[in-house]
Give the backbone structure.
Amino acid sequence: MSGDDNCILMVGGYGAVGREAAKTIRRLYPDVKLIIAGRDVTRAGTLAAELGGAVGVACDLATPGLGLAPGLAYRGVVVFAKDEHLHALDHAIAKGAAYIAISDYAVEIAPLVARSGDDARHIPILLLGHHLGSLVTMATLHHTRDIADVTDVRIGAIFDAADLGGATAQADAARVARATPHPLIRHEGRWLWAEGPHLTRRITGSDGGVHEASALSLLDVASIAAVTKARSVRFDFAVREPSSKARHEVVIEVEGREGDNRTAIRRITIESDGFHTMASGRAIAFALERLLGLDGRSAVPAGLWLPENVLDAAHVVSRARASGISINGQDARV
Amino acid sequence: MATDNTWVLLIGASGVVGRLTAARLRQRWPDLAILAGGRDLQRAEAIAAEVGNARGVALDLSRRDLGLAHDVSVGAVAMFVKDETLNGQLFAQDHGAAFIDISSAAFELGPQTAFYSERPESAPVLLASNWLAGTSTFAALDLANSFDRIDRILVSALLDDQDIGGGAAEADYVRQTQAGPSGLVRKNSRFVWIAGEDAAGAFEAVDGRKFDAQAFGNLDVLSLSAATDAPDVVFQFAVGETSSRRRGEKFSHEILIEITGMSRDGREAHARRAVVHPDGQAPMTALGVSLAIEDMLGLRTGKRLAPGLYLPHAIVDPARAVGALREIGATIDDEWHRPGGLAVHGAEKLAQ
């Protein structure tokens, strides 16, 4: 493998999520080269200069080949936007690079699924349309690994009104809400499109505040159900008044049965200062670390993957905590 | 091969399509062990008796083992009902059995994919929720082989209102058209959701009557896009009176495929293919499932399909499917238009 190979292409890398991912990679792996690509080559170049060992280039997701100079080699391609034409996927296939998609909700993965069984079968594709770059799923799986039989998982993400994400995230959410007005939930063993009373629920934040939350078709629901086989899984989000200090919070309520048949009730919390995009960016970096084998272990092989298939939940949680994100699991007495 | 005590489990065998699938498999593979599964034991056993060399079983889809005895060795699982719990897929993966689903629209693939990617080496999983289990996809790809460059593919289906099928099909229809988006199409090389007026289209039935149609996000759009890279791909359908019924005969099923591009002789061309079956949708859907089972189990070649996640175009050869469609009584007529005008018809009669 030539030195040029030790490189990651980050499309939209100078956005809020991308820049945090890039900085985290730079901090953990000083020798990995980064290509920050986007429509605004000035912003790309500025971030690249800040990072060191990086270049900023112009790139257009609507153009085959992305408008990039030929002859570049990378081990991974991450798109911090919606790869609508799938030209970034085509490009990753041509380069034999791993591909991460972060903007596809659970209801939108069909095009990637179709390609993964076709010409994309020779590269690893990681579906990462999960909240906080899959940190929520990882924290949930890590903090329920000792529960013999998980039966219910209810995830509640509380967003600060000033922290609803950048243009891409908001466009993603709006697009999906219009296209699929009935979000995906798992309810008592069945996959359902939420209607009526199933559409919303109340969630209680760490400060005791109660919020009206709405279901969202994020891949966390599919991932957590696949691993735990829980009968009921849902993801809801609420928006609260902006506070003076930016903060993001996710509360995960779990019910299950212990080995000795006792009922288990656990509350897992994820709290981070700053905008949620920071936590997302870091988690995506932790995913890249494993996907590309930056950690010295084998890179993930070709295939269609969700984070729980290829990431070590304990490691991701540990990395997140080390970066200042607070993750805790607490049992409630029945 | 699913012989030597390994069964082909048909879940929903007593339904319209399930029965036809069982019959076709039995006709072509006399020694294939078929397990007719359903909610009702009596009906399942009646189907098994009809098919011969088969057994009927009552299934409980709320259980991961489907309520089947644990010593039953299963080589393939085909679901003719929506796998709401995903226990059908889990069961297949637990047994290393080929799995076929025909009831999940493009927007519904999330959970199945997550369950698949957990154990990608366990079994081949076929997502075959293309129209009529791949019929329109195969017919379109076969026609597409006559083109060097494809600009646009439009697949229209006319489902007779008397042919909505049994409970499973109706439930699918309601769920997918009400719970989900209007349609997923490929437009200018992008996959986009479209709704309302944008999703409204029209087509001409075989007898020339014009029908309003709704774009529908089934897997045809994905298969055709992946296989041809056509920048514009739309699947639409209408429910109404098929041309045969209009003529005073019983209902049939019509699929109209339009492809625009450059044909192999280097000229701009537009082709229209009409696929019609005089007995409606069921025989063609059953054929789609049967062909998939044959290819996944390697019944003809002796080579089983490797574990993986598939759409029908990645498994079944379109030319073979078109040949099989003709064998079961479908007529396939092509009409070619070149700029400058002459329409050339390739009708069944002429071809013989």
Chain B has a mean pLDDT of 91.
